[in-house]
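Narrative summary of target 7.
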Amino acid sequence: MTRKRDYRAEYQRRIANAAKRGLSRSQARGHAKAGETAVGKRTVKDADKFEAALKLYRQTGNRAAAAKAVGIAPERFSRFLADAVAVFGRGKSLKISDDRPREMVVMTNGECHRIKLRDFGHASLNGDHLNAVKAFLTSNNPDLLRPFAGKSVLDTKGRAHLLETDPNTLHRIAASGEPAFPEIYRIVQ
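Modeled conformation, tokenized:
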């Protein structure tokens, strides 16, 4: 005969374990309040869906339709938006500020390093630098590198990394066979 579950004891145990970890009762139940972080782990598959919904939301401006189109609940997508990005305005004036850290390859000090960059601004500057380096390597025009002379990007720990602009060093790095752009850009959760 099967053993009868004691739901009350299970609930009390869950609340007690959450209290030890410094979580609220609502987080322990699995339904965190607005402003509290969710306790459950999100899978990589979910992360891809959330990113696809965010891309669609940027294009259409319709939060619920974007969530439903990729197969997630609008409430979960709203929670993701509140946790990950800042949304301003509605409709045509919709602005989404995404300042999550991004992991990219940065050409600095004569080498390529995989670094977690602080926010979108630094990742954008690094992406522009990588595009300029690619254009320089095909045209050998050093004027393409001048806008990046003396500029640096910040990592998540606040350290500055000076962008490489020396033509000889960039040719040496290119000859070493570094990865292509799609392999060097990733948003870090």
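Residues 44-97 form one domain.
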